[in-house]
Structure formats: structure tokens, C-alpha cells
What we know:
- This protein is mainly alpha-helical and 211 residues long.
- The protein has a single domain (51-210), classed as Tetracycline Repressor, domain 2 (Orthogonal Bundle), CATH 1.10.357.
- It contains eleven helices and no strands.
- It is elongated and about 60 Å long.
Amino acid sequence: MRTRDSAATRTKLLDAARDLIRGKGYAATTVDDICSAAGVTKGSFFHHFANKEQLGVAAIEHFGSMAEAFFANAPFKALPDPRDRVLGYVDFRAALLNGEIAQYTCLMGTSVQEVYATHPEIRAACDAGMSAHVAELERDIEEARRLYAPEAEWTSKSVGYFIQSVLQGAFIFVKAKQGPEVALESLAHLKRYLQTLFGMKADANLEEKTA
């Protein structure tokens, strides 16, 4: 029972850190904020984590595990054609751009922009998490490349990082504009570009469909 309660407390702290940091940023989120949001005492916090930075790393890893499971069970993953899975991934990300901004933007991207020069352990955790997501995308991209663009000089890895670069940039404009319109247009352009990479005619009406 104690082990189960301890694990539940740790998860509450990780979930609270995830949501608060996405909404306020790492520096503005205090240990007191996290404890209050999690409904636990400060003593419980320090039972699980030596300091906020250790929690920050753990929250990044926790977020990565949740994202991995979430995308593994997304509808596009069941599509038989790898090209459709790649394009479906973009559609799926576009469909997520609604509701509270902090609930659909990326904890890793939010954190690394702020702490890359001051908290190397958090930066490294963000790099590992985002790169792992790129590697997962890379499998479908490579399979699609072999089927539809076998003579292409670009690499699946580079396209995976490009997709994530567009997404992370789109999240920045979501925050700047306080809305998803620019992000949706950016993802529409991204999908058109991917269509041309895989030998398809780009859909000129994609922005209307995405929006």
C-alpha cells in the first residue's frame, strides 16, 4: 500500500510539473506551486526529488513516455501505407491544436527554449525526448521513401527533424498569437511539402481542409 501511495504521489507531482511548466515556464514555476497543484506536502516533494531540476528532468521523461503511448495508439498508426501514416501524423497534430494552449503545446520545446544554457540536465532530457520522437517518425518516413522516392537524396532522419522543427516553431506562434491559426497554416504547408517529397501532387486546398 505504501509503495502504491508513494508512486501515486510521484505521479501527481510529475503531472503538476508538466502542466504548470507548459503554462508558466520553468523559472516561474516554484516547488510550492507544484506541491499546491499536486495536493501534496513539501516534505513529500523532497522525499521524491532532491530539487526542482531533478523534478524537471523526471517530468520531461514522464511526458515523453505519455507522448509515446499517445501517438502509438493514434488512428494514423493503423494505416497500412507508410506515406499515409506520415501525412496522417501531420493531420493528427493539426487536429490537436484546440483548447487551452498549455494542454497541447510541447513540454520539451517549452522547457529547452528557456533553460538550454542554464540547466544542462534538463536540456539533455529534452534533446533525448524529442530525438526519440523523431526516430519513431523516421521509421514510417523511411518506409515511405523506399516505396515512393527510392532515388531521393534526402534522409528520413532529416525529414523527421524538419517535421518537428515546423511543429515547435508553430507552437511558438500559437503562444505569440494566442491562437492556432498560423500553426494550422504552417502544418498545411508542411503536408503539401511532404506530399511532393513522396511523389504526390500537393493539395492546393489543404489550408481550408486543415482549418
